[in-house]
Write a structure and sequence with these properties.
Shape: globular
Helix content: 25-40%
Radius of gyration: 17 Å
Strand order of the largest sheet: 3-2-1-4-5-7-6
Number of helices: 7
Structural class: alpha/beta
Order of helices and strands: HEHEHEEHEHEHEH
Number of strands: 7
Oligomer: single chain
Largest sheet: 7 strands, mixed
Length: about 220
Amino acid sequence: MRIRCKPWAKPELDACDFCMNEPDSLRNHWHEQFPKKQPLYIEMGCGKGGFIAQAAPSMPDKNFIALDIKNEMLVLAKRKIEDAYEKKGMAKDNIRIAIKNISNISQSFGEEDKADRIYINFCNPWPRGKHKKRRLTHPRQLEQYRTFLKDGGEIWFKTDDSPLFFESIPYFLHCGFDIRYRTYDLAKSGFKENFETEHEHMFTEEGKKIKFLIAVKKPDEEIKK
């Protein structure tokens, strides 16, 4: 779906005190952008913010970074985040957002930006063969995530797209991840730590089963054995 240009989006983000306007300049210094050093969770492609606006204020003992490629999307996430924190009467100390093309994520995150968890929620499935390398779960992306994800760190991957899910499992295994948990029907799985977004609810109402897995990064030494 083509997103209509919103000329006011970038100025609004530029004025936002929790939007990092030059993420590449923060490489290896992300932990310093928060008042407290806490476990770092990153959402790759936050869209309109349905997930991050629930997760971040619900876990004040974690620091969150939400990334998206479009100003027009991120500004909507910014508004949802502000509303969520305001309703809880909380300061936005543990949330940062930034515009970033995830395909070049290693330009913004380095070995010192150790993340404990990465979220990939309902990313573009890129079903055509020649486009599959654009998937956020493609090996060329997973190899980039490995550089700043801690050993034992997790990737939580959720999608309604069955081909993307099933084809991503060997991607994870090939790139040195163990699949700790998987379900082919999240709504009926009994998994408790889920924040359901509007789109997820819509998919479920339409009868689409949500697939979900947790992949855990193995240390480099284990992969080489």
